[in-house]
Amino acid sequence: QFPFGRRLPCDIYWHGVSFHDNNIFSGLVNKFPGMMETVRKITLSRAMRIMQDLFPLEYNFYPRSWILPEELPLFVAEVRMMKDNNPSWKPTFIVKPDGGCQGDGIYLIKDPNDIRLTGSIQSRPAVVQEYICKPLLVDKLKFDIRLYVLLKSLEPLEIYIAKDGLSRFCTEPYQEPTLKNLHQVFMHLTNYSLNIHSGNFIHSDSVNTGSKRTFSSILCRLSSRGADVKKLWSDIISLVIKTIIALTPELKVYYQSDIPAGKPGPTCFQILGFDILLMKNLKPVLLEVNANPSMRIEHEQELSPGVFENVPSRVDEEVKVAVIRDTLRLVDPQKKKKDTHTFYPWIHLKCAHQLPRTSSVLHVSHLPQGHPVKPGSCRRTLSVLVFRRCPGWERPGPGEELPGAAAGAEAALPSLCLKQVFPKYAKQFSYLRLVDRVAALFIRFLGVKGTTKLGPTGFRTFIRNCKLSNSNFSMAAVDILYIDITRRWNSMGIDHKESGMCLQAFVEAFFCLAQKKYKSRPLHEQVALLIEQCECRLAALQGQRLLWGCA
Ligand code: ADP
């Protein structure tokens, strides 16, 4: 909060929607640059497609997806081919507008040709995806899981998963899709924002009944039915790690552009919302990743037709309060400065029903006397919340005691709800991080700081330094490859702000080179071999330059 305007640097900047303040030169920010763009439906699908091409089995937790309008002919052709190969296959597809949320504009189709009939696809790009027809049902209802994931650091990668999440239920008993029920959103879409408007929505104060429950209550139920809940958790952890591995290359490109290395800048972390569907056989499927998951801990109740009131929601409180509290504990900037005597003020999240209904959610308590922020004064309507270290509020020296209230607050905090999964399981997953290494090559040749696209000279330098051109692959062919791929990616209309080759185009060109050079091997081996070659050549070049420097 800036009671007197912002003059001093802050420890933590809490942005409401996205990373948007380029004038922060220190401290922590709760958003990564480019995260919103990276998790949009189309960008996520592209990133998952790259990983599915490299590691089809490892990434089969993401439904087969096509990008509209550009892949409409491919979608129609592939579905026709699959149907020809397997006439008993009666698929359903779900069309989701890019950048949409809360179920906005989503519809189901049985026949690929129905896409053209249903909407203005040219004006609104979308993803069409295989619909999971056999979800796990509880009380005959379809539900999905919202899990909170803390991306604490990008380099080195640090990921935490909240031990509990939310289960959001449909409000009509589920039936497998037929032409008759395709339009019944309360049966097929689990969005809270849609189902709240169904007459069947049940708001419950218990965490294991009603239309929104804790995920742990579902796990208890599954466990009592004999399901292997341990295996389910391990599948979910693996899904989260693999998804973040798919997203990091693009995030790193944005990061170096907004916060160039070697310049003063903040450190970022972010709470992400993972939407996961469980199939009947308990296999988790990724639906989407939300860069700005709702942290509301209130529920909208209709008092009379059209008149709504916000009432506390115990389920939301139980899950979300713990996530924010423990995120703050984990990123605590004072932890890193062990030797300093100042320490971070106690931010205490209180339950909404203990606070005035209209305003506070985040409650600041135990501040030193005379501090301008009044306890309980952070309003949820603020788009940026700032936690500033309090001058004069010193950690007690050896032998001194913590201020009573602060000591009490620390002791009273429950154990962390966020569980570290990376680097804990890094060894198991490091072989998947190939595109990360391709992105490192891309960033290295970007040249101008602050850019996200590679120019033709940068691409040529990459080819030359890595010694990828030869008698079979001339520099003229290199230029043609650059122009062809760059033109195609730029015509897809993703980002017209900058000209040049974007990361995905570079990855495509890199895969092309790898396939050319190491024929008849699986794609991931071809790519791994080419990366090794490039890294070796660049290391040798670097060594030579150092030697010349010494000489
Ligand atoms: P939005 O961002 O608009 O909420 P989602 O991708 O989360 O879009 O989809 C909305 C809802 O549609 C999900 O919560 C889920 O219930 C359902 N859904 C989405 N994709 C699939 C799918 N491939 N199979 C089955 N159900 C899906």
Describe it.
- InterPro entries: TTL/TTLL_fam.
- One of its GO terms (molecular function) is tubulin binding.
- This is TTL11 polyglutamylase.
- Pfam families: TTL.
- Keywords: ATP-binding, Ligase, Nucleotide-binding.
- With 551 residues, the protein is α+β, with helices and mostly antiparallel strands.
- Among the domains are: 12-63 and 132-331, D-amino Acid Aminotransferase, Chain A, domain 1, CATH 3.30.470.20; 432-549, Recoverin, domain 1, CATH 1.10.238.
- It is 37% helix and 18% strand.
- It is built from 17 helices and 21 strands.
- It has helices at residues 35-38, 41-54, 72-85, 114-118, 185-188, 192-195, 215-224, 229-258, 314-331, 333-336, 404-412, 426-429, 434-445, 456-465, 475-491, 503-517, 523-550; strands at 12-15, 28-29, 65-68, 93-97, 107-109, 126-130, 137-138, 141-153, 158-162, 166-169, 212-214, 267-268, 270-278, 284-290, 298-304, 307-312, 347-349, 360-364, 378-379, 384-387, 418-422.
- Strands 7, 8, 9, 10, 11, 13, 14 and 21 form an 8-stranded antiparallel sheet that branches. It has a 4-stranded mixed sheet with strand order 12-2-1-20, with no helix packed on it.
- Strand 13 (270-278) and strand 14 (284-290) form a beta hairpin.
- Helix 8 (229-258) packs parallel to helix 13 (434-445) and helix 13 (434-445) packs across helix 17.
- It is globular.
- The N and C termini lie far apart (56 Å).
- Residues 63, 94, 96, 100-104, 106, 129, 131-132, 144, 189-191, 275, 277, 287-288 line the site of adenosine-5'-diphosphate.
